[in-house]
Amino acid sequence: MATTTGFVLGGRVGELLFLRGTSNLRKCNCDIGGNKKRVGQFRMSQSGSNSSSRHNDRQSFDVAKYDEERLRLDAETRANVAAFAIMEQEQESTRPGAWKWAIRKRIWDTLETRNIAQEPRPVHHRIPNFRGAADAASRLARLPEFQAAQCVKVNPDTPQKQVRFLTLSGGKTLLTPQPRLRTGFFSTLKAADLPPEVPIIEACTSGGAAKHGTPIELDAPLKVDLIVIGSVAVDPFTGARLGKGEGFAELEYGMLRYMGAIDESTLVVTSVHDVQVLEEGSIPTEKLLIHDVPVDVICTPTRTIFTKTTIPKPKGIYWEVLSPQKLEKIRILQVLKNMIEEKTGQKLPSGPDEILPPTAARRNSWRGKRGGSSSSTRR
């Protein structure tokens, strides 16, 4: 597995981990202001509101406009990423991870040509929705680890919508990220906290989660028992996984490790169609990057696969591989980086420059009067 020398912020209080390869770790306790305090203690302004203001926010939250804006941004981002992927393949880019695009394209093409793909289509440059996604979710829900879990982190993509429903309807806490971390960090939802008139399935959409979820802070006391992650392709033996190529699942995992909400033993599960399960060795593990997240279990509509992964899971946020361009696009990482540098008196390393496809800025027009009209598709 490819490694890098650098600086990773781990999940333990007041502790920085200096990485040298994959096995040699040195620990350095940080004394902040004369006392050992949690390095990650800060509050996002949107998370510090009281219950009354949160209620008012929910009353004024326009789900239709939120979905309309989200779909516009998603379409623009996918178009930009598609052009970027073509450029990398045509130029035979040597950028780490560029080789993954050929595998992704083959899977997306197969899902479309065999009509396995489901809306939203086309599935290219998405975590693809597929026929049988609900069956795969049912298999996942039968896992003893899922049944015993109290808090489950699930990605916000369409094929995992049924997993989010089963999480909430099972009385568990659902932890879900803001799409592409555009408007914040994570939100938690519980079925018991929903207004009586709101069906659980509504809270399983991106707009419903944004409206009814409770934003959390980086210093929130949180324990996640199971992680469900979306995938484009997976290796059934090594557990190697490819996402859609934007890297947000890896950042989300790293931030949860930083918070101490998860550790190496936390089970990572993905639900995919059988055609997304590759032949063993199709994803070269020696080319994987240090922040790539492997999976422990794969659930398809027809089978449950327990991988034999030995790929180390990321131990936190690898600042030395996070480009300034990527950092600039994610506000919560900017705040976190500035806070750590201020508290420790140490400047965190920065990754090399990279060319990223441009993304549009959210206008937040959905925080207006309740209601509105839109025929946008919810996921």
Automatic annotation (TrEMBL):
Q: Which InterPro entries match?
A: FTHF_cligase, FTHF_cligase-like_sf, NagB/RpiA_transferase-like
Query: According to the lineage, what is the superkingdom?
Result: Eukaryota
Region (Disordered) location = 343-379
**Descriptive protein name:** 5-formyltetrahydrofolate cyclo-ligase
